[in-house]
């Protein structure tokens, strides 16, 4: 029997040290640079999708960001991060949810994802992801997404994954988002293997009224 996504990811995080999973980064440098490039104020609301046991939230707190939300399907991952942060965990909003079921209670200036999208191999699931993103993002908000690139792995954590070029990812987001920057980067896993990642930053564009000068 195939485990549900929640069961699968809770098993991953209870069965492995968070520093030994293939996606572990002691410093998420590319994500941090793209977030900084948005020029957002330090009190802008930011949500990290599939944040799990990632150290991104630690670095954002260190950089002075004050309105942070971490969403993950695995309670065990969120527990690990809260334990790591200690007293600082109270400065972060925590949401235990599958991104496909996420109904945002508020909107955010920035949506970050380095963990969830490439595991969505079904087109209907990707459409649900985009719907959640659109509901969660403010007008003129920013999207920072990292996925496996065109030459990335075909499987991760025992699951098939979807690989992306920047054009393919842009097509998924649709015409309401303008590409600001992108790069391909090689991630070296704790096991020493290398994986290609695509990093991109888009900004939501506000539709113009008929007859309005652009």
Overview in brief:
The protein has 214 residues and is of the alpha/beta class. It has 6 helices and 9 strands, in the order ααβαβαββαβββαββ.
Overview features:
globular, disordered C terminus, alpha/beta, 214 residues, Rossmann fold, 6 helices, single chain
What's the topology here?
Blueprint: H1 5-15, H2 29-37, E1 46-49, H3 56-62, E2 68-72, H4 75-85, E3 92-96, E4 108-113, H5 123-136, E5 137-148, E6 155-156, E7 159-160, H6 166-173, E8 177-188, E9 194-204
Parallel strand pairs: 1-2, 1-4, 2-3, 4-5
Antiparallel strand pairs: 5-9, 6-7, 8-9
Any idea what the radius of gyration is?
A: 17 Å
Overall CATH class:
Alpha Beta
Number of strands: 9
> Major sheet: size, sense and barrel closure?
7 strands, mixed
What would you give as the CATH superfamily? Answer: Vaccinia Virus protein VP39
The CATH topology annotation reads as Rossmann fold
Under the CATH scheme, the architecture is 3-Layer(aba) Sandwich
Structural class: alpha/beta
Cα shape: globular
Number of domains: 1
Q: Which bin fits the share of residues in helices?
A: 25-40%
Total count of helical runs of at least 4 residues: 6
Mean pLDDT: 89
Order of helices and strands: HHEHEHEEHEEEHEE
The first-to-last residue Cα distance is 55 Å
DSSP strand content: 25-35%
Low-confidence stretches: 208-214
* Strand line-up across the major sheet: 3-2-1-4-5-9-8
């Amino acid at each position: 029997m195939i485990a549900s996504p929640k069961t699968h990811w809770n098993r991953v995080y209870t069965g492995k040290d968070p520093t030994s999973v293939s996606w572990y980064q002691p410093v998420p440098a590319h994500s941090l640079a793209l977030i900084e490039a948005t020029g957002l104020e330090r009190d802008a609301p930011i949500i990290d999708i599939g944040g799990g046991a990632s150290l991104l939230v630690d670095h954002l707190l260190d950089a002075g960001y004050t309105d942070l939300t971490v969403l993950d399907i695995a309670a065990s991952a969120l527990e690990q991060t809260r334990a790591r942060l200690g007293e600082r965990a109270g400065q972060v909003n925590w949401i235990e949810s599958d991104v496909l079921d996420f109904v945002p209670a508020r909107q955010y200036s920035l949506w970050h994802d380095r963990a969830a999208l490439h595991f969505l191999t079904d087109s209907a699931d990707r459409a649900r992801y985009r719907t959640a993103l659109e509901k969660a993002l403010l007008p003129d908000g920013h999207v920072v997404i990292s996925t496996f690139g065109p030459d990335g792995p075909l499987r991760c954590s025992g699951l098939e994954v979807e690989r992306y070029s920047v054009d393919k990812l842009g097509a998924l987001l649709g015409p309401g988002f303008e590409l600001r920057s992108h790069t391909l980067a090689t991630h070296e896993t704790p096991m020493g293997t290398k994986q290609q990642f695509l990093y991109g930053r888009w900004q939501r564009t506000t539709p113009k009224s008929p007859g309005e000068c652009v």
